[in-house]
Model the fold of this input.
Amino acid sequence: ELLRLEHRRSTETSESRTALQGQITALQAQVTALQAQVATLQGLARDSIHPEPPEDAGGSA
Done:
């Protein structure tokens, strides 16, 4: 009986560990996606503060 309980506990622990690893992987993917969004927003903010000058404003050549 004790061995059966220990085996069940071990199985439950293993299943919990696997579920947690899946959640961690999903969270890591979300963090990566958010980091990409932040980088994009930072670029947009930079562009709005310091707009690129026109390539050719028709100045003297």
About this structure: Helices lie at 2-49. Residues 2-49 form the longest helix (48 residues).
